[in-house]
Amino acid sequence: xAKQKQxxxxxxxxxxxxxxxxxxxIFDTIxxxxxxxxYMPIETPAMEKLSTLLGKYGDEGDKLxxxxxxxxxxxxxxxxxxxxxxxxxxxxxxxxEKGLRYDLTVPFARFVVQYRNxxxxxxxxxxxxxxxxxxxxxxxxxxxxxxxxxxxxxxNSLLNELELIQxxxxxxxxxxxxxxxxxxxxxxxxxxxxxxxxxDKIIDITVAIDKLDKIGMEKVIEELKTKNITEEAIEKxxxxxxxxxxxxxxxxxxRTVLQTSExxxxxxxxxxxxxxxxxxxxxxxxVEFDLTLARGLNYYTGAIxxxxxxxxxxxxxxxxxxxxxxxGIFGLKDVSGVGVSFGADRIYDVMxxxxxxxxxxxxxxxxxxxxxxxxxxxxxxxxLPEIRxxxxxxxxxxxxxxxxxxxxxxxxxxxxxxxxxxxxxxxxSKITLKNMQTGxxxxxxxxxxxxxxx
Length: 454
Known about the structure:
alpha+beta; 2 domains; BirA Bifunctional Protein, domain 2; eight-stranded mixed sheet; Rossmann fold; five-stranded mixed sheet
């Protein structure tokens, strides 16, 4: 029998303890900021009904959904004519009723509708869970990755947009990542579509514009042409997208350009209000009005956000926007929401590249007792509970082996302190503490060790 090759699917990853310590630092930092602003945690299943997921992300998004085969004989309900036809889209509807979630926002909308009688509105929630996309794996793009979402539903107030900007600012300041927040409004983009005479092509236009950073203006124009956007419309669109100047100047120019578009002017009013709020507060992160920001997801209707790291080329590390009626597709009309999603995996890549993680992490062992023998082991076992009660992560090496092997273990785990307890230490009721970085050794009492390490 051939030996099975070990491995994991492309676009997924295993995480070692050293990596998980860093990832948890990101999760804990983000979570602490979410809680600071009054958001509560929820979780939803990894899989949802395909009827919940399909049609919410546009044609491109639907293609990236991982479908789950029905349990048992999944071909039993498939019609013979469909099998012979070899049409994967039609066949999928007969053999698959569930799929892995593509994001956390659509499941959240389903959650809000399902439990609306139990929730207090505005409902502020955060959610940190993995999502899956059948995308082509590449640097910074995975098939399985974590999202850290924060949303508020049941309120139209633009104070919510401001609060999200504050949360973004707080998170990345705590993580020490230098970022820029790009801000736009889908109503402005709808106004631009009206201005160029292509109001019915707003989705095609936003999907194309959203790729501007990745493929450049020339390729975007090519894509617009394939969507039957006229040459005249493209000529009118180009100078609007490349509009320069300050936020105030851009808004003034656009008020003239979009003067006949009611929805466009409303979008300008909204973005002006948000920037006025921002100017009144001490927000350290740069906030930029970017007309080329489109966010490809169909459900956005108002403000849209994107955050990029200034010191690393890796794409968006946080993004989101307002959706006025996402819950409507599940039967609950006129419930507006707004939220952003932090891409933990890309944030990790940025922080790793720029060496921004703190050296000493609380999740690792701080103090390890060397195991010299049975008598010393029993002595150390009585000390360990006192060490742990003081909030110090501590362990004893489980086997009575050579000192070199125990020290190698401590070095591999990056344990900063090692406790040595032999005959001399036991008779003096003290412990020799070794600093693994400096090599310095001190004979100390238990309380002195707790004080020193704490």
